[in-house]
Design brief:
Order of helices and strands: HEEEEEHEHEEEEEE
Distance between the termini: 31 Å
Structural class: mainly beta
Number of strands: 12
Largest sheet: 7 strands, antiparallel
Strand content: over 45%
């Protein structure tokens, strides 16, 4: 058994679990904000709750911690380039098709699934904050998901 204090082996073990890839967005006084996230999961069907987490030392963390609404965009395999587009907190929207929703949240068009949420609760999770959202509306389309496995994007 490996020791959990060996972070590199611990991260390798975690990377054996395949996840989908999402971009979470919110509005801010500086403009639209987006972050690539693979920690998205469903929490409850009634009420409809989902969660994701962000590193507390991320330059985007406080934008989400201080926002009342966010959107989770599940990416199609053809949208792999979106993952690297969000290098800085208020960048990434320049060359993609998006618009604000009625809550001032940037919505990226043509994703595999979209969940428009209001914040339900926030929880401390070590070096991350766990954000739980109440799904107010959603959309789903056809296509194949973008997957993250063993430190790489896959389809």
């Amino acid at each position: 058994m490996a020791d959990v204090t060996d972070i590199s082996i611990y991260k390798e073990a975690l990377s054996q679990f395949a996840t989908g890839v999402t971009i979470v967005t919110c509005g801010s006084e500086q403009g639209p904000v987006g972050i690539t996230v693979n920690s998205f999961t469903s929490v409850s069907l009634n009420p409809p709750l989902v969660l994701w987490s962000a590193a507390k030392d991320s330059k985007r963390h406080d934008y989400f911690a201080n926002s009342n609404h966010f959107a989770i965009h599940v990416l199609k395999k053809q949208q792999i380039d979106l993952c690297s587009a969000f290098v800085k907190p208020t960048q990434g929207f320049e060359e993609i098709d998006w618009e604000y929703n009625s809550d001032g949240v940037p919505i990226i068009n043509d994703c595999l699934a979209l969940f428009e949420c209001s914040f339900y609760s926030k929880h401390e999770g070590g070096d991350h904050t766990i954000f739980v959202g109440h799904v107010n509306s959603f959309n789903v389309s056809k296509g194949d998901p973008l997957i993250f496995l063993q430190g790489q994007y896959s389809t």
